[in-house]
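Repro:
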Amino acid sequence: MGVSDESGKLRGSALIIKQDLPFNLCWIYCPRGPLTSFNTPIAEFLFKEIDKIAKSENAVFLRIDPGIEDDPNLSWKDIFPEFRLAHDEYQPRHTLKIDLNLSEEEILAQMKQKGRYNIRLAEKHGVKVVRVKLTDKPNFDKSVDEFYEILKETTGRDGFSGHDKNYYKNMLEILGEKNFAQMYLAQFEGKTIAGIIVTFFGDTAIYYFGASSNEYRNLMAPYLLQWEAIKDAKKRDLKWYDFLGIAPEDDENHPWKGVTQFKKQFGGKVVNYMPALEKVYKKGWYWGMVGRKRMRN
């Protein structure tokens, strides 16, 4: 759903995802949106259209997680008075971004010393980075298989869950057709030992998924993969390289603590977003859902 001005320029948009519930009910989700300036006529129009969708689809509630940075002088209540804090979070509230307006030398200089060292270490030991091409179908399928195998090693080692193989394949095929996504594989002596998937859209590159083999971890291949993706994002004249999620700075026991330590080796700016919010349409059903979820947890 989009809103354009008189010249036809897009001024606001919203992706609405419907999540089915029993009894012909549903809830609707607008991830990282709506994409517009808030407290404006365009934002008001978008929310009215979303309300119409909610009514027609018999929605219990709407969830949003707007990409607005936290401001100690501005409460989410001032912008979204009809909403309440969400009973769950789907998008990371805290992330790390590298300013791509800096030169390569400046980006390296603002990294932690260990980050620079590990990039050079991977290069010194002959780790090669391959950009997987969607047009090379046999090699593309083989590369997805290799990425998925080391991803299973990663999830087992680090204790988190992943998607099935077709999720990553479909992502690369659909976004790759318009050059919006790229898989990078790190290889050593012809063997794939690590990989990442990065998206490129608007002014931002986003590191979405990463995997590394239990073998050759001493070669620090993930550092070189990130550096190559950062350089590619600069070549595209993008403004930001987003690491998509880090642990809150005040949570020493957060499950993302380990991956956060890795990401922070690249320096960058910590960005904190406003919390996820929900607009309730059917209060009885909503509080019943929330209560049931709390009992399960």
